[in-house]
Amino acid sequence: MDWSSHYPGIENPLGRRSAPLLYVHKERITEDVVVGLLLLVKLAELFPDKLTLALEIRAKVTEYVRLRIEALRAEKSCQFQNVSVLRTNAMRYLPHYFRKGQLSKLFFCFPDPQFKTRLHRRRIVHTPLLAEYAFLLAPGGILYTITDVEELHEWHVDKCSSHPCFTRIPDSELESDPCVKAMTEETEEGKKVARGGGKKYVAVFRRKANEDVAVDNLFW
């Protein structure tokens, strides 16, 4: 994958081994765009030395975000060179774009709850997909989830906690994490939930070191 077109202001972007990854998956297009843009902008500020990428399956949304990024770069020439957006189906093709251990952070912000039981297999946080996320995350990498649906939050906790490659980070340790604050307070969806008096459920997990992963033969 040639990343130079995504990060034209950065010399040899492929040489950067660790890159945070932002993935926003929602159905309401306007909110989706705003959530993605605001979080992209904040992550660019929090991690100026790392690359941040948003993955989106819809062509119009991808193009809108791309144009907004170009506008931000033109407005502030020395900033936002480290953010980009890519149109793809992350649930199918994510391993096609990244090497083993290349990612340092994964964000799943207000994903589609897929309420119907027969559609649970389409949830972006699911046991088969967690194996891919564990492969792509560097040991010590972080997987972030946030939702306003309690049942989906419980699903996130159950699936990630049950996976041998992940361990949950205690909530007490999240208070000092700027990424958690960005997800909950500085995205439009997070603000909307707060305005409506709703609750935001956050669960964050750390990718274990390879030597700490104990896989039961029955797990697979």
UniProtKB/TrEMBL annotation:
Keywords noted in UniProt: Methyltransferase, Nucleus, RNA-binding, S-adenosyl-L-methionine, Transferase, tRNA processing, tRNA-binding
Record's protein name: tRNA (guanine-N(7)-)-methyltransferase
A GO CC annotation given for this chain: nucleus
Phylogenetic classification of the source organism: Eukaryota, Sar, Stramenopiles, Oomycota, Peronosporomycetes
InterPro entries linked to this entry: SAM-dependent_MTases_sf, Trm8_euk, tRNA_(Gua-N-7)_MeTrfase_Trmb
Active site annotation, chain numbering: D112
Residues binding S-adenosyl-L-methionine: E56, I57, N89, A90, C109, T187, E188, E189
Reaction catalysis annotation: guanosine(46) in tRNA + S-adenosyl-L-methionine = N(7)-methylguanosine(46) in tRNA + S-adenosyl-L-homocysteine
GO molecular function, one term: tRNA binding
Main location: nucleus
Pfam name, any one: Methyltransf_4
Subcellular location field: Nucleus
